Amino acid sequence: MSYGTFPHWLFGLSIASVVLGTACAMVIVVDECKRPQKMWIMNVVWPLTALFGSVVWLAAYYAWGRNVSRRNQGSAKPPFPAMVLKGTSHCGAGCTLGDIIAEWAAFLFPVLAVWLGWHSVFAEKMFAVWIADFIVAFLLGVLFQYFTIQPMRNLSPWQGLLAALKADIASITAWQLGMYGLMAIIQLLWFIPSYGGIAKVASPEFWFAMQLAMLAGFATSYPVNWWLIRSGVKEKM
């Protein structure tokens, strides 16, 4: 597939969206330097999710994620939907970081896509890279979950790994399916017919599309996390 030629308005919108998401992530990082999360992995989760969730996730951080004293916060726990948002975001942070790493790795080293089936199985590089996206996102998502569930349940490393796998297999799969689905719609059904080709990784339009796709991943993973947390497979956060 060839790369598209995008209009100025889409280029400007993409730049603004990516910059806004990055700015929201930096606001959270600065605040976490003053008020570190009680669970260290959440210091990574909140900024990563703000990269795609922008002001909505920044607001969620200040409402339910910020580490403040019990005296200022009150004794009430966050509502269950907010707990699910945090649990889903925890999964999404691993997916976000995994997709960033895999997409840039395949862009800089195209042989990675060849190893995963480009030319031999897939005519389009994008589909081979999605395999890398899923592998790296899955590994990081399970790792993020491990550093949450292992200390909370006081498990051995092996028990913690098994519990992390059990908690995140369905969640990560649901996220990635939603993300792939919307990314395919944007690239194949919007960008190609309208602009003559897909957006390449080294373009703001690609990462704007990825922000939207990550929101779709959150939407498909949220009900799965609701069930996992309600059934006790995942911990309330």
Automatic annotation (TrEMBL):
Q: Does the keyword Transmembrane apply?
A: yes
Q: Which InterPro entries match?
A: DUF4396
Domain DUF4396: residue ranges: 83-234
Q: Where are the transmembrane segments?
A: 6-28, 40-64, 127-148, 169-192, 207-229
| Alphabetically ordered keywords of this record | Membrane, Transmembrane, Transmembrane helix
Would you tell me the protein name for this molecule?
DUF4396 domain-containing protein
Per the UniProt record, the source organism is: Trinickia symbiotica
